[in-house]
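Trying the structure run again after the queue cleared.
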Amino acid sequence: MRKLAVSLLFVLLVAVVASAGTVDVNFDDLPGDGLAVPQGYGGIDWNSNWTYYGDVQDPYNPHTPPNRVYTFDPNGAFSFVTPEIFDGAWFAGNAFATVQFELFDPNGVLVWTSGMLDPSSTPTFLDSGYSGLVKTVFVESPSPDFYIMDDVTYHTPGGTTPEPSSLMLLGTGLLGVGGAIRRKLSS
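Done. Tokens:
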């Protein structure tokens, strides 16, 4: 009975973690090199102005090799197919090519501007700093051809990643319920 309870707890915890709605768009499964990111890739409309490549090129190092994306548009934008909660992305490149996000809600209204990041050869995560739904993200930079972006991360509404203390509380409660059932069955 104990093995069954532990097995059920494990399956439930795995299901809870697996159902978390976080999406990481890393471009690494795209074939070829130097091509436009396909529309709809990763649940995102890339507005035909983002190109991916996988060649080694310091300081434009990907967070997860081999592929990353770039644009020559100073207001490089992408839009979610359905409104999402945008977490951020990883950037590398030259420090003078500062980057920041401008986030627009489903009605096209600017709702948030992120902090600014000075890229370097070490990929660094730029957090959007906003937890509401957005439709469009502008990646603002005075030098768009001197940075790359990788691992765009967002999550779907209602699909949150459980924190460890919540999982611990859930597990403890399930063990308690299992123990109560076991005592009931054995009496």
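The two ends are 14 Å apart (CA to CA). Worth checking whether this holds up in the mutant runs.
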